Amino acid sequence: MSQTTLLDYLRHGQPEGGSKYRGSRIDDPLSELGWQQMRSTVAGLEGWTRILTSPMQRCRAFAEWLGSERNLAVEVIDDLREVGFGSWEGATRAELLEQRADEYHAFYADPVNNRPAGAEPLPAFGGRVADVFESAATRYPHEHLLLVAHAGVIRATLGHVTRAPAINWYRAAVDNAALSRFAHDGRRSRLLAHNWRPMLGSG
User: Fold this and answer.
1) Structural contact between residues 10 and 149, judged by C-beta atoms closer than 8 angstroms
2) Which of 29, 32, 54, 141 stands 20 to 30 A from 61 (CA)?
3) For the residues of 136-157, what is the DSSP string, one character each?
4) pLDDT by residue (tens digit) across 180-197?
5) Is the distance from CB of 121 to CB of 115 less than 8 angstroms?
């Protein structure tokens, strides 16, 4: 029997309050639009054997709803929570560009060494996200998993699988309710698709 595990990472839809920097401290629920986005993405997809989810309610609520709809076990994994953004939490991109432009541009030039005050260190974040990926692939060989998580988690997983250094992670777009698919055969992992929404085509 094939030992390949498929791991589909689904970013949450838009939360209430619109786009802003939400890490592991701000726990806004999904907006109605966010629910619609996520339902649209999964509507035509089947084959998942279980769901793993971040504990943040913008992920967990949808994961538990989908698990109930499709009779799938749902496992909450604390290390799937978003990276902590420290002093940026709750701020919008426009606010940062207006009030902290130098800090904002420094972050995107080098997100490893130019962290917001109080932010989770990026190597530590990447380590916990990589551990989730490897553990899930090992515990559930030849299964097809859905992991409901965050943009940062998906970027860090991309970095882990493709061996991209953390300084490059924020060059990857991760849209609301978009999917990224990875495969792990017990020896190596591969990226199969990224930032994909079935109803809209490739991201």
Assistant:
1) yes
2) 141
3) HHHHSTT-EEEEEE-HHHHHHH
4) 999 999 889 999 999 998
5) yes
